[in-house]
Amino acid sequence: MGPTASGKTHFAISLCKRFPCDIISVDSALVYRGMDIGTAKPDTETLKRAPHRLVDIRNPEESYSAGEFVRDARREMDDIFARRRIPLLVGGTMMYFRALTEGIAELPMADKAIRREIDAIAEKSGWPAVHAELKAVDAVAAERINPNDSQRIQRALEVYKASGKTLTEWQQESGAPAEDIKYIKIALQIEPRKLLHERIALRLDHMIDGGFVDELRRLRERPGVTRNSPAMRSVGYRQFWGYLENEYSLIEARDRALFATRQLAKRQLTWLRSEQSIFTVNPLEVGAIDTISRHLAQRLG
Length: 301
Description:
Blueprint: H1 8-18, E1 21-26, H2 44-49, E2 52-53, H3 66-82, E3 86-91, H4 94-102, H5 112-125, H6 127-137, H7 139-144, H8 150-163, H9 167-172, E4 185-188, H10 193-209, H11 212-220, H12 237-244, H13 250-274, E5 278-281, H14 288-300
Parallel strand pairs: 1-2, 1-3, 4-5
Helix pairs in contact: 3-4, 5-6, 5-8, 6-8, 10-13, 11-12, 12-13
């Protein structure tokens, strides 16, 4: 686990050379086909050398939930175990990790009519107003969801409108994970934070130079893809969508994306601090891969 731009893919591939591991992606954006540059998806050659499961399994006009991830991840883990190998779960979508390791409520199915209703409110009054509506019915969920996190606000309010029961109530009824699996948790955390911010900025500029805006233009042309599609709410895509709608300049889009990515990293680090029994390594330290390998060898032994 680790924040964006911390080097998770690099370290995962290195570990696969030292241990009998197969990689399972834990990333809510990498599941989408055609979203390659803006997600920093490993390139084709890298994926040939080190296949990543749960990459490119959805079209960008489709949705993908934490519950679907748990189902898919467990299926892939069972297959890897059957081959007498070790699943290596790699990514930065902390909600997916938590759902997999601690269980997840069986939430109501998505309701397109309710989503359209919520989107209409947001279009008229903004997502902070929708967040306020959520707070009125589920203060606990609203407290942990950022007022501008449209995807999570929409889902929490949708659950309540569809079932009459709040997301918090559903989650409190969540059971433990079905399988008795031992997880070894390793976090990559770059210190000082300034260095992480520099890496985030460099990677964003590399994406822009590499054709990110053209990638988004192609995605916008797909029938069924709108700025409110779950895939387009991914950090970077939603900020540059505004640029393509002539709402602000390319420079401002870059600044907005940089700010949003830093905020994402901050949330990821907050999640990591709440994790129990986690081994933390600074990936920029000399010999970091050896430190991780020794820890794994001890725990797996």
